[in-house]
């Protein structure tokens, strides 16, 4: 039977229907547990390495003070991030927030901060993985000489491949191995019998007050951030979460609580087993603590706990850095080539692959404390803009004007606290790594000029804003 259409009646063949282009996009497959696994998975490695450099800066008491002050800073970060991200649920996290709230130049810089912070954190994890495997094989007498650089490269390449293949499997793995790493910290804590001080833990003999006075607390703030750096990475999964308004605040805030507990336990065990002079320069302090207990099974468990923590962190960092770079490519802040999504795996595959050789180059050529410092500095710059962003956000779109998945309390106190603690940490970093701080600031200034004078002309200005909000107050 022939369909009767106006074209058929006129004796003209009806044109074939035009094929509808299918847009390949990121999949919404994640829940609150995956958000927790991403955030804590990135950060928990800070309990296994890096935090102890704060002990070297100012002693054990200074490191504990810096740990709690940094905990306040990251609680503010988590509250602010949860409100804005549950409202701006897009890939790129803080980059997408800055784009909608402050403007393109701020967004470009935030995107670079994110990529630098996560890539340098990934590099730090690869370095520690190589050092850990080298130390473990030597201590156990398993093999002869081990080339740790091979394990650095293998870690980066394998995790990039895993991220390439899909986000659900990637973050499910993160969830599992992060839980095992956290269990290792708790097991070590219980094994040293904290309820019986003096038997295993020797705080009475090892705690020495403040060897460098109050200045040591300021200096320790530099590495105090390492206990929590990266928890804000939960926002990078915003476009792949099934219910952003619920999952992002729940996963982020429970993640901060988990890290506060783990950080305090870690400090307590480490400072009760090792003198601060050694602890302040150890590469794998919790693994060393397990060795000092004399328990071979516990040493093996802490080896795997440390290994899983570094893998989970590097895994999450690849996920987050690639999402930020992908979002910038999609908006043409970077070449649009980076904004592609894999047609089968639904991942930003080009952005993932792009950073593999960069990470390998830094891993085999840069000292650990330098890569940690570069990551911390990039994070600090992002937190500073985050504090300004939430103030502008509340002023432009007051409560009640747009839907928010979460409203953080006590505004603007968290923003003020965040700015104050960031300022203190800038001073701390400058005291020890002033040249790196100045070099990084110079890099971002040059990059900003490149964006403003050259790159922004390629941006489709109307397409970059995706939120259907009313005009801001005072527009």
UniProtKB/TrEMBL annotation:
InterPro entries: AA-permease/SLC12A_dom, APC_superfamily. GO terms for biological process: transmembrane transport. It comes from Methylopila jiangsuensis. The lineage of its organism: Bacteria, Pseudomonadati, Pseudomonadota, Alphaproteobacteria, Hyphomicrobiales. Residues 41-452 form the Amino acid permease/ SLC12A domain. This is Transporter R00093. Keywords: Membrane, Transmembrane, Transmembrane helix. The keyword Transmembrane applies. The chain crosses the membrane at residues 33-54, 60-80, 101-121, 149-164, 171-192, 212-229, 250-269, 301-326, 347-366, 372-393, 413-431, 437-453. Its main location: membrane.
């Amino acid at each position: 039977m022939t369909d009767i259409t106006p074209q058929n009646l006129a004796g003209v063949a009806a044109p074939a229907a035009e094929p509808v282009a299918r847009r390949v996009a990121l999949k919404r497959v994640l829940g609150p547990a995956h958000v927790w696994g991403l955030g804590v998975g990135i950060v928990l490695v800070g309990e296994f390495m890096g935090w102890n450099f704060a002990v070297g800066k100012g002693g054990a008491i200074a490191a504990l003070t810096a740990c709690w002050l940094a905990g306040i800073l990251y609680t503010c970060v988590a509250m602010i991030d949860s409100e804005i991200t549950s409202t701006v649920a897009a890939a790129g996290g803080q980059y997408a927030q800055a784009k909608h709230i402050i403007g393109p130049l701020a967004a470009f810089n935030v995107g670079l901060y994110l990529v630098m912070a996560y890539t340098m954190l990934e590099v730090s994890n690869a370095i520690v993985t190589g050092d850990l495997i080298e130390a473990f094989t030597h201590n156990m007498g398993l093999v002869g000489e081990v080339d740790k650089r091979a394990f650095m490269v293998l870690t980066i390449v394998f995790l990039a491949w895993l991220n390439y293949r899909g986000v659900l499997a990637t973050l499910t793995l993160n969830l599992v191995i992060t839980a095992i790493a956290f269990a290792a910290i708790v097991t070590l804590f219980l094994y040293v019998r904290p309820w019986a001080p003096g038997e295993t833990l020797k705080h009475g003999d090892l705690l020495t007050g403040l060897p460098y006075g109050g200045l040591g607390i300021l200096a320790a703030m530099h590495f105090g951030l390492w206990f929590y750096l990266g928890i804000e990475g939960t926002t990078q999964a915003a476009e792949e979460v099934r219910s952003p308004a619920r999952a992002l605040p729940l996963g982020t805030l429970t993640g901060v609580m988990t890290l506060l507990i783990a950080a305090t336990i870690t400090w307590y065990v480490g400072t009760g087993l090792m003198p601060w002079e050694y602890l302040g320069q150890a590469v794998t302090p919790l693994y060393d603590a397990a060795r000092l207990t004399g328990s071979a099974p516990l040493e093996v468990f802490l080896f795997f706990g440390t290994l899983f923590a570094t893998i989970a962190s590097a895994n999450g960092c690849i996920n987050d850095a690639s999402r930020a770079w992908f979002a910038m490519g999609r908006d043409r802040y970077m070449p649009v080539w980076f904004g592609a999504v894999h047609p089968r795996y639904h991942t930003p595959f080009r952005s993932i692959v792009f950073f593999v050789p960069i990470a390998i180059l830094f891993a085999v050529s840069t000292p650990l404390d330098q890569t940690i410092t570069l990551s911390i500095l990039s994070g600090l710059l992002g937190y500073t803009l985050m504090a300004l962003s939430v103030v502008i956000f509340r002023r432009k779109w007051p409560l009640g004007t747009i839907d928010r998945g979460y409203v953080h309390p006590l505004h603007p106190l968290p923003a003020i606290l965040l700015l104050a603690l960031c300022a203190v940490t800038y001073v701390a970093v400058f005291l020890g790594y002033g040249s790196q701080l100045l070099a990084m600031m110079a890099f971002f200034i040059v990059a900003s000029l490149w964006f403003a004078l050259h790159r922004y002309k390629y941006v489709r200005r109307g397409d970059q804003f995706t939120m259907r909000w009313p005009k801001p107050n005072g527009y």
